[in-house]
Design brief:
This protein is an alpha+beta fold. The protein has helices spanning about 30-35, 55-60, 110-125, 140-150, 180-190; strands at about 10, 15-20, 70-75, 80-85, 95-105, 130-135, 155-165, 170-180. Helices cover about 25% and strands about 30% of the residues. The chain has an eight-stranded mixed beta sheet, with helices on both faces.
């Protein structure tokens, strides 16, 4: 994939300036520090234990900007947000991307999650993808609402599909959106308040 659009300077709602850019392999230590700085409740439903060095080594090694495209938000030299797009190159779902967005607690509810998701939508369009998928756990109600405001809709519910870090079972909600529609939604509500994903 041709790397375009980044780095990009963005001003958040409160006037804070951050830089969005592609994540690089040498960012591993800084990204690990970012994940370790997340409150426990923000890590309850992450798919992996992002605080382990071995996870970070594996994550960084998988970066190829073709099947896995991570971007980050940086403020004063510190990573404060991470968003990753995953796609396959062969098979039934070559037209689909899965996205994940994580934002530092002190930068939530300030538009950063929206900017990161917007960046992934643009990347999806540039890749010629048609559909974006997001996975949300049942009690992440605010995150569900945030994705709905971006034009996502509930497509499936997998009962008792995930366990949080305490071993409690939860339903996994699959939400999806056509890439062109999510771009239109984000453009139309860029100044709106998104309570959870940010």
């Amino acid at each position: 994939m041709k790397l375009t659009d980044y780095p990009k300077a963005v001003t958040l709602r409160d006037g804070t300036k951050v830089t969005l850019r592609y994540l690089k392999r040498e960012d591993g230590p800084a990204l690990l520090e970012f994940f370790r700085g997340l409150p426990e409740e923000d890590r309850l439903f992450l798919r992996d234990d992002v605080t382990k060095p071995e996870f970070m080594e594996s994550f960084i090694e998988k970066i190829d900007y073709d099947t896995m495209v991570p971007i980050c938000a940086e403020h004063n030299g510190t990573i404060v947000g991470n968003a990753t797009l995953y796609r396959t190159r062969h098979g039934w779902t070559v037209h689909v991307a899965q996205i994940r967005v994580v934002v530092a607690r002190t930068f939530q509810r300030n538009g950063l999650g929206t900017e990161l998701a917007r960046g992934l939508a643009r990347i999806s369009i540039n890749m010629g993808l048609d559909k974006m998928i997001a996975q949300v756990v049942d009690n992440q109600v605010a995150a569900q609402r945030a994705f709905e405001k971006l034009g996502f809709h509930k497509e499936a519910v997998l009962k008792n599909h995930v366990k949080d870090i305490f071993g409690r079972r939860h339903d996994l909600i699959i939400m999806s959106n056509d890439v062109s529609h999510i771009w239109e939604a984000m453009e139309s509500m860029a100044a709106s308040y998104l309570p959870a994903m940010e």
